[in-house]
Write a structure and sequence with these properties.
heterodimer, A: Rieske Iron-sulfur Protein, eight-stranded antiparallel beta sheet, 29% helix, 23% strand, B: Nuclear Transport Factor 2, Chain: A, 21% helix, 37% strand
């Protein structure tokens, strides 16, 4: 007699050298087909989104047992739910019977479980099958309930309240996936006692662009701000974006494993663009305490003009306090989900100003974000042209600006007006296409420079 | 002058429909407002249609179970607009810039207004109004975004006619099916 095997299946990675070669690092060029071709997109789902650690939730979104939110990892629908023991688990949002979605809502509080609307299979918040509608299964002597579960992610971990998951049982621990990039992350996730929280839920919208354009924009493209965001800056600041007199000695880009941050170390440049002087004053007032906690360099990053992407598709803006995920929806579309992040210890009226400031600047109607979408849409759409997408793209700003003398972790380059982090982002993308195992992935070129590892 | 309702309060006394003259006045207000917005006359819209005490709110709409006590939206949570007059003015300043690239070349706008109902509020000088809207934005060759929703408004009488002083905008969309909101709804 046959017997179903309901054990989870985590797809294996492969190797796509011909796709990896679409990144021409030696020429600082990127082949445009990575933004258009269905073949590339399919390989990304397997090589990147089924393997990398992906952001799924902030602890503050699901404080109590049974609290859950629904999100996606790549295109896979996932429920993230707080367990009775206060740990967090995540499951594919698909019934193992006929595959129907078991959770239809964005979020909820204190759920006891999830019931499939199709045949009434019901699952506990631990993902285990609890029961079925009617008596048919109960009287079927060969039906074994015990092995049937919502498929769990392979691993789930929290870093300072930010929860990530992966579908790869072989993925290294989350902190190894970050590597020494945690030095920079901590400037935002841990600049005050109690860490961060998300407030006010998410806004979500569709943008018809390839997911890598916004990801590379946040990993290290402050250059675009001067041109793209002239109008937004004029509306809020009454003038253009200004990197100030100390740009040359202070600004830098840093990258580890494709994660990247560009920063101007100006203390408040990003916060200023939210348009509320009270917020700028708040950041200044907290500066001495942040120096104490983080040292001067990182304290200067907290509100400064800067941006960050965690490979592959989580981004945030220091000081403006918007956090977003660029969820892929086919090669030519993303679902953009964005939240407002604040420190738990902030006074309520300061949190409220951040909520309003993010809405005014970086939401679908925001005076900055409004002008981003069309650029990314047309950067994607021009590749419809067969000849067009065979032309290389130029990623060569700031060659030869490596700055090991700064003594900061990762691949560090002088100046934030630089394509350095974008080159590293695509180098990491290429490594994910080429390597079928984490040993090679973590020893590849985007890994922190050797001398730094020796020093640790 | 009577106190203004909070953005979360009911606006209309639904058992007290306004008279035919007020109903006609409200309709005229909506059609003129729509025409100004379609023509991107945002400063005129502020000057002629918007009261200085405006609270203009468009919450994000969640998908939630019917028994979820939070409901599908909540004030103080994520929103597309939650603006005072000063904040609306900031947005209008962006539109006025020649480098507002998402509006240059110009977007072609259409605001369709229907299902207009005017009600008394129980407060002197204030009229409550409901309407449904459709917003079409077309750009460049084939880019088109269509949004639908409802408004719940309070209009205040002034020397120069009715002005918008409270607005709740509810879209029927959960994930907003557009790259941006370069308009007012």
């Amino acid at each position: 007699m046959c017997k179903p095997d309901m054990a989870p299946v985590y797809p294996q990675a492969s190797s796509y050298p011909h796709l990896a070669d679409l990144i021409r690092s030696e020429r600082a060029q990127v082949d445009r087909r990575i933004f258009w071709d269905e073949e590339v997109y399919k390989a990304e789902q397997q090589q990147i989104f089924a393997r990398a650690w992906l952001f799924v939730a902030h602890e503050s979104q699901i404080p109590d047992p049974g609290d859950f939110i629904r999100t996606t990892m790549g295109e896979d629908d996932v429920i993230v739910v707080r367990q009775r023991d206060r740990s967090v688990q995540a499951f594919l949002n698909a019934c193992p019977h006929r595959g129907n979605r078991v959770c239809m809502v964005d979020a909820g509080k204190k759920a006891r479980g999830f019931i499939c609307n199709y045949h009434g299979w019901s699952f506990g918040i631990d993902g285990a099958l609890r029961g079925t509608d009617g008596k048919v299964y109960d009287t079927d002597a060969h039906f074994e309930k015990a092995q049937i579960n919502l498929t769990p992610v392979a691993q789930i971990e929290s870093y300072r309240g930010w929860i990530f998951a992966t579908f790869d049982p072989d993925a290294p621990p989350l902190t190894e996936f970050f590597g020494p990039f945690t030095f920079y992350l901590d400037a935002f996730l841990d600049n005050d006692e109690g860490g961060t929280e998300f407030i006010g839920g998410a806004t979500r919208n569709l943008v018809d662009c390839n997911w890598k354009f916004p990801a590379e924009n946040f990993v290290g493209d402050i250059l675009h701000a001067f041109w793209t965001h002239q109008a937004g800056a004029a509306a809020i600041l009454g003038g253009g974006v200004d990197l100030g007199p100390h740009y040359a000695e202070r600004a830098f880009q840093a990258s580890v494993f494709g994660h990247g941050i560009e920063t101007n170390l100006d203390k408040v440049g990003n916060t200023r663009t939210l348009g509320y002087p009270e917020l700028v004053q708040y950041v200044f007032d907290r500066y001495p305490a942040m120096v104490e906690r983080l040292g001067e360099t990182r304290a200067r990053m907290v509100g400064a003009i800067g941006s960050c992407t965690i490979f592959p598709n989580l981004s945030f803006l220091p000081g403006q306090n918007t956090v977003r995920v660029w969820h892929p929806r086919g090669p030519h579309q993303i679902e953009l989900v964005s939240w407002t992040v604040v420190n738990r210890a902030m006074p309520e009226h300061i949190k409220e100003l951040y909520r309003k400031g993010v809405m005014m600047t970086f939401s679908p109607g925001g005076v900055f974000e409004m002008d981003d979408g069309e650029n990314w849409e047309y950067a994607t759409r021009t590749n419809r042209g067969f000849v067009t997408r065979h032309q290389p793209l130029h990623y060569a700003l700031g060659l030869g600006t490596e700055a090991p003398e700064k003594g900061l972790p990762g691949h560090v380059c002088r100046g934030s007006l630089n394509d350095a982090n974008q080159r590293q982002f695509y180098r990491r993308w290429s490594e994910f296409m080429r390597h079928d195992n984490w040993g090679d992935l973590q020893a590849a070129e985007t890994a922190p420079p050797q001398h730094q590892e020796a020093a640790e | 002058m009577s106190a203004l309702p909070a953005i979360t309060e009911p606006f209309a006394l639904e058992d007290r429909p306004a008279g035919a003259d007020v109903q006609a006045e409200v309709e005229r207000f909506y059609y003129r407002e729509a025409r100004l917005l379609d023509a991107e006359r945002y400063q005129d819209w502020l000057d002629h249609c918007v009261d200085r005490d405006i609270h203009y709110w468009m919450p994000d709409m969640d998908t939630r179970r019917r028994d979820d006590p939070r409901g599908t939206y909540a004030h103080g949570e994520a929103a597309y607009f939650d603006d005072s007059y000063a904040e609306l003015s900031t947005r209008v300043k962006r539109f006025a810039q020649p480098s507002a690239w998402a509006d240059n070349p110009a977007t072609r706008h259409l605001h369709l207004i229907s299902n207009v109902e005017a009600y008394e509020t129980g407060r002197s000088g204030l009229v409550a109004a409901f309407c449904a809207w459709m917003n079409v934005r077309n750009r460049n060759e084939t880019d088109q975004d269509v949004l639908h929703g409802r408004r719940e408004d309070v209009l205040r009488r002034s020397d120069s006619g009715l002005k918008l002083v409270r607005r709740r905008v509810f879209t029927v969309q959960n994930v907003l099916l557009t790259k941006n909101l370069n308009t007012f709804l």
